[in-house]
Amino acid sequence: MADRPTGVFVGSGLSPILRNNVITAGSAGNGGTGGTNGPDNYQDGNGGWSFAIYDADVVDGATPVLEGNTLAAGAAGSRGGLAASEGEAGEINTTND
Q1: Are strands 65-67 and 17-19 parallel, antiparallel or unpaired?
Q2: Domain spans of the chain, in order of start
Q3: Which of 12, 53, 75, 81 would bridge with 27, disulfide CB 3.0–4.6 Å?
Q4: Per-residue pLDDT at 92
């Protein structure tokens, strides 16, 4: 699982009320590069995620209440190689994949 720097991490089953905040996430880290020969060739790391608000469980029915906030994500992390995925960035995550 990629590292996910975030401004606010919302745990499973929680519905916090966030009002009138400036929430800024840091930039995510880049994925590592695997070896060039043998089985390590496919072990490149995925880029990291950066979300201003990260909901740990997007299917639990509990969501944060947001009013009057300014949200900013950092840059997504670059993939470590061809066998990996770019990271993701945004104001609020919609999946945890």
Answers
A1: parallel
A2: 6-84
A3: 75
A4: 82
**H-helix or E-strand spanning residue 65:** strand 65-67
Q: Which of 12, 20, 1, 27 is nearest to 89 (CA)?
A: 27
Other Cβ atoms less than 10 A from the Cβ of 51: the count is 26
For position 19, what pLDDT does the model report? 95
Count of all residues that appear for the chain in the document: 97
3-state secondary structure of 90: strand
Q: Is 40 helix (H, G, I), strand (E, B) or coil?
A: helix
Cα–Cα distance for residue pair 54/10, rounded to 1 Å: 6
The segments of the chain whose pLDDT lies below 70 read 1-6, 35-42, 96-97
- Tell me the longest C-alpha to C-alpha distance in the chain: 52
Model confidence pTM above 0.85: no
**Cross-strand bridge partners of residue 51:** 6, 90
DSSP 42: G
